[in-house]
Amino acid sequence: MISKSHITQRFISYVTVDTESDPNSDTTPSTEKQWDLANQLVQELKDIGLEDVSIDENAYIMATLPSNVSHEVPTIGFISHFDTSPDFTGANVNPQIVENYDGKDILLNKENNIVLSPDYFEDLKQYVGQTLITTDGTTLLGADDKAGITEIITAMEYLIQHPEIKHGTIRIGFTPDEEIGRGAHKFDVEKFNASWAYTMDGSQIGELEYENFNAAGAVITIKGKIVHPGYAKGKMINSMYIAQEFINSLPKLETPEHTSGREGFFHLYQTSGKVEETTLHYIIRDHDKTKFEARKKTIEDVVETLNKKHGAATVTAVIKDQYYNMREKVEPVMHIVDIAEEAMKSLDITPIIKPIRGGTDGSQLSFMGLPCPNIFAGGHNFHGRYEYVPVESMIKAVAVIVKIAEITATKNS
Ligand SMILES: [Zn+2]
C-alpha cells in the first residue's frame, strides 16, 4: 500500500539531519540542532494536511488528524522521538540502501573494513530478499526513532488520502531528548488530550510491550580514615576495603550479565575510591514491584550490618526511584494492548509480547495519565554503527498504525 521509495526518501530526509541529544545540557531540547529537524517536521505535518500543528518552546510537536465518523470514538495517540543517542555520533549520517538482501555479509565501510554480518547479528537472516537501510559504518543510523516518526507521518498521510478508512480523532506527538531520559518529562498530557497512545519506538517487527522495569538508583558512600601508612596500625580505615565488603554482600548472580526475562538485578556501574572515601553507583531493576522494594531493603540492610561492624555512619546509601513498570497502568485498560495485537495479527505479523528490560517514554507517560504501550518501529542494533532497518518493516508499522485507528473506530461504533 505504501511505496518503498516514498517511505525510504522520507526516512532519509530525517536521518541526514543530526539530532544527537546531550545528557550534560540543562536546556530542552538539550541540543540546539534538534530544532532543525523539529521545524522541518512541523512544516511537513502542515503540508500533508494535519490540523492543530503546534510546537512549544521545548520543541514538543503535536498535531491532529480529525475524526471522519459521526459516532463517538476515543481519541488515540502515536508518539515517537526525534533525537538520537549520544552513545554514538549522529553527524553526517550517510545511509546505504541494500536492495534484495542476499543473506550474506554487508560491507558497510571498505576503508575501515566494517562489516555487518549475519554470523554475529543473526536477526539479519529473517530479512533475506528485503530492502535494508544501513549506515556507512561511521555513525549510527537513527532508525531509533526516526523510523517511528517516518511511520507515523506516513500513516497519517495515508489516512488523509484514503477517507474511506474510518477512524476517530488521532493525535500525534514528537518529542526531543528521549535518549537522555527526558522525552516525557515536559510532555503536556492534558494538551495532548488522548485516551491512550502508543510509542512507535520498539525494535524488530512484531514487538509489542507494556511491561518495563521498576527502576531506582543508589549511591553508596563509605567513609575511611587516612593515616600515614608507616604508622597506621590500628588507626587507618581503608574505605575501599569496606566497599569491597559491600559489593560482596549483594547476591553475586543478580547482575545484568547473569539475568534475563523477568529477572531483576543490582548493577554496579561506577566506582571511585581513595582511602578516605569510596562511592559506589548502582542501579536497581525489577519488573516485580514487591521484589523491587525488597532489593532496596537489601541495600539498606547491608548498610546497617556494615555500620554495626565498622561504626555508625561509616556507610550511607541514597536511594532514588527513577521510573516504574507501566504494567500497573496498562492492565486496567488492557483493551489498548488487545487492539494492537489484533491489528498485527490481521496483517500477518506475529506479535512478540515481552517485558522490556529497560524503560520507555511510554512508562513515564503512563504514570502521567496517558497509558502508552510500545510498538515496533522496525530497526535493529540501536545506538551504534551496526544499526539498520528493513524498509518492509517500516511499511508494516505504517499498516499497524492505520489498522489500530480502524479497529478503534469500529470497536466503538
Ligand atoms: Zn528510541
TrEMBL record:
Coiled coil: none annotated. Pfam families: M20_dimer, Peptidase_M20. It comes from the Bacteria. CDD domains: M20_peptT. Residues 210-309 form the Peptidase M20 dimerisation domain. Its main location: cytoplasm. It is found in: Cytoplasm. Its EC number is 3.4.11.4. Zn(2+) 1 binds at residues 81, 144, 201. Zn(2+) 2 binds at residues 144, 179, 383. Its cofactor is Zn(2+). Binds 2 Zn(2+) ions per subunit. GO terms for molecular function: tripeptide aminopeptidase activity. Keywords: Aminopeptidase, Cytoplasm, Hydrolase, Metal-binding, Metalloprotease, Protease, Zinc. It catalyses: Release of the N-terminal residue from a tripeptide. It is an enzyme of class 3 (hydrolase). PROSITE patterns: ARGE_DAPE_CPG2_1, ARGE_DAPE_CPG2_2. The active site is at 83, 178 (proton acceptor). Belongs to the peptidase M20B family. Cleaves the N-terminal amino acid of tripeptides. This is Peptidase T. The lineage of its organism: Bacteria, Pseudomonadati, Bacteroidota, Flavobacteriia, Flavobacteriales. The gene is pepT.
